[in-house]
Design goal:
alpha/beta, 7-stranded mixed beta sheet, 8 helices, binds magnesium ion, Spore Coat Polysaccharide Biosynthesis Protein SpsA, Chain A, 17% strand, binds guanosine-5'-triphosphate
C-alpha cells in the first residue's frame, strides 16, 4: 500500500494512522510505503513526520528522495520501492476514504483484474474542480476512445505486480494516471473501476491551476500523436 504524502505535513496522520490500523487488523501480509520526496529548495516537513511514524512500525517504510518530477515521479518511486504482489496507491491528503485501499485490494483479488482505479461517483471538491474534470474526461474519451472508463485520475490506483512490470511507466507528472490506463489497454490487461467518494481538501486549495490544465492538454496531444505515428 503506497501513500503519496507530498506536502501533507502533520495532516498526513489522518490518513496513515487509520490506514495502518486497518491493515494491522486485516490479517494480510502487507507493507505500507510512505512517499515524501522533496525539492531541495522547497522545505517540506512531511519527510520528518512520516519518518517518525515509520520508526516504531516494522511494516511501514518511507521513500524520501530528492524530487525529480511531480506526482508521476512520486508514484513511480513508491511503486518501485514496494515489494508486494498487489500495489494500491492513494493520496495522503485525506480526500479518499482510507478504507478504499483495502476494499480495492480485496476486489482485485476476488475479480482477478490486472488494474483497478477509483471512480469518483460523489465528489465534494467544488464545482470548479468538477467542471475541469468533466471536460478532461470527455476530451480523453474522444481522443483515446476509452469508452467505459471514466474519471481517469480517480484514486486509489491498484496494480498487480505483473501489471506493474508490464506497464513500464515513465510519466513524471499528472499524466501517469492516463498512462496506466492507456498502457494497460494497449497490452490487453483487464481494467476495472471501484466506485469511491471524494472529499474536499480541507488543508489547501487545489493544485490544479491553469498551468496544470495546459500540461494535461500538452500531454494528451503528445500521447495521441505518438499513437498515430
Ligand atoms: N500537486 C502535487 N502533488 C504531488 C506532487 N508529488 C506528489 N504529489 C501527490 O499527489 C497527490 C495528489 O495531488 P492533489 O493535488 O491532491 O490532486 P487532486 O486531489 O486530484 O487535485 P486537487 O485536490 O484539486 O489539487 C497528493 O496527495 C500529493 O501527495 C507534486 O509535485 N505536486
Ligand atoms: Mg488531492
Amino acid at each position: 500500500m503506497i501513500v503519496l504524502c507530498y506536502q501533507a505535513g502533520e495532516a498526513v496522520h489522518r490518513v496513515i494512522g487509520p490506514l495502518y490500523e486497518q491493515l494491522e487488523a486485516a490479517d494480510i501480509a502487507y507493507e505500507l510505503v510512505l512517499v515524501a520526496n522533496q525539492w531541495p529548495d522547497r522545505p517540506d516537513p512531511t519527510g520528518q513526520v512520516i519518518e517518525e511514524f515509520a520508526i516504531h512500525r516494522d511494516t511501514v517504510r518511507t521513500v524520501l528522495g530528492e524530487k525529480q518530477g511531480a506526482m508521476g515521479w512520486d508514484m513511480r518511486s513508491g511503486l518501485a520501492a514496494a515489494r508486494g504482489d498487489y500495489m494500491v496507491v492513494m493520496d495522503g491528503d485525506a480526500q479518499n476514504p482510507v478504507e478504499d485501499v483495502l476494499k480495492m485490494y480485496r476486489r482485485m483479488r476476488e475479480t482477478g483484474v490486472d488494474v483497478m482505479k477509483g471512480r469518483r461517483i460523489a465528489r465534494f471538491d467544488g464545482p470548479y474542480r468538477r467542471a475541469i474534470s468533466v471536460v478532461y474526461n470527455l476530451t480523453f474519451i474522444l481522443l483515446f476512445r476509452t469508452r467505459g472508463i471514466w474519471d481517469v485520475n480517480g484514486k486509489p490506483k491498484g496494480l498487480t505486480r505483473a501489471a506493474y512490470e508490464a506497464l513500464d511507466l515513465e510519466s513524471d507528472d499528472w499524466f501517469i494516471d492516463a498512462e496506466i490506463l492507456l498502457s494497460a489497454r494497449r497490452r490487453g490487461l483487464a481494467v476495472a473501476e471501484l466506485p469511491v467518494v471524494f472529499h474536499p481538501n480541507d488543508e489547501r486549495a487545489s493544485f490544479v491551476r491553469p498551468a496544470a490544465i495546459l500540461e494535461f492538454l500538452r500531454n494528451m496531444a503528445r500521447q495521441r500523436f505518438r499513437r498515430r505515428s
